Amino acid sequence: MDVDTTLALFDRQMRKEARPDPAPARVERTGEVVRQVGPGELWNGVLWSGLDEAGTGADQAIARQVAEYRAQPGVESFEWKLYSHDRPADLGDRLAAAGFVADDTEALMVAEAADVAALAAPLPEGVELLPVTDTAGVEPVAAVHDEAFAVGTGARIRARLLAQLAAAPESLVVLLAMAGDRPVCAARMDFAEGTDFAGLWGGGTVAEWRGRGIYRALVAHRARVAVERGYRYLFVDASDQSRPILARLGFVQLATTTPYEYRLR
User: Fold this and answer.
1) Would strands 106-112 and 233-238 be described as parallel, antiparallel, or unpaired?
2) Are strands 252-263 and 101-102 parallel, antiparallel or unpaired?
3) Which structural domains are found in the chain, ordered by start?
4) Beta-carbon neighbour count of residue 206 at 10 Å?
5) Distance CA 224, CA 104 (A)
6) Cβ distance 19 to 32 under 8 Å?
7) What rounded mean pLDDT belongs to the chain?
8) What pairs with residue 27 in β-bridges?
9) By percentage, how much of the chain surpasses pLDDT 90?
10) Fewer Cβ neighbours under 10 Å: the N or C end of the chain?
11) Distances in whole angstroms, Cα of residue 157 to Cα of each of 74, 99, 153, 188, 234
12) What does the pLDDT read at residue 143?
């Protein structure tokens, strides 16, 4: 994989020319900034800023986003999704000075979907993979997130999945791994129509079931679905925990990304 070429394609398709999450979310372009706006628990944030190396107008662009998001009814916070190659180089410092709070930095990792789909990745004995298509299935997914990541994350995932399944069920695949009646892992894949990229999200495994190949199996399964739908690449914002697993599956790091959150209310 040519890292520079693939990163440029990702920037163009997934950031500069971003498609919104399902309605009522929308993508707006204000000057050099591309952002998504949506009510309730839908994701709100800046995807692309297009600022120059000198930072001309950067502080004004940041202030404008704060003011315009503040005017959005029902939006309590938004995120400025900063990538390591974004300009100016001190954009993170400028965001922090404006009141944004940085979360953990993750690795933007990409792989050829066909390569990952060809991997042998069986589920452990006694574990079954189930598709999630309705409210009843979303509840155990939210429970896995609360247990695998942090209490409280499940509520946001629940709201987002319910909205997306209701508005555009074809835009995602949600999977739940069950060991008997125990939900042990959950993951989803989002499809950006008209692009080469399918995004892998979640992949949370409860503590006592880690290290048994479930995460790997869910990645390979989603890769096969992506290939069937005509997507060339898989991308992941990978944590420190998942990055080495993904590297062994053939994913290549293109950049890092850090979410900067601004609380509006």
Assistant:
1) antiparallel
2) antiparallel
3) 3-107+259-263 (no CATH), 111-255 (3.40.630.30)
4) 19
5) 30
6) no
7) 95
8) 36
9) 84
10) C
11) 18, 25, 6, 10, 21
12) 94
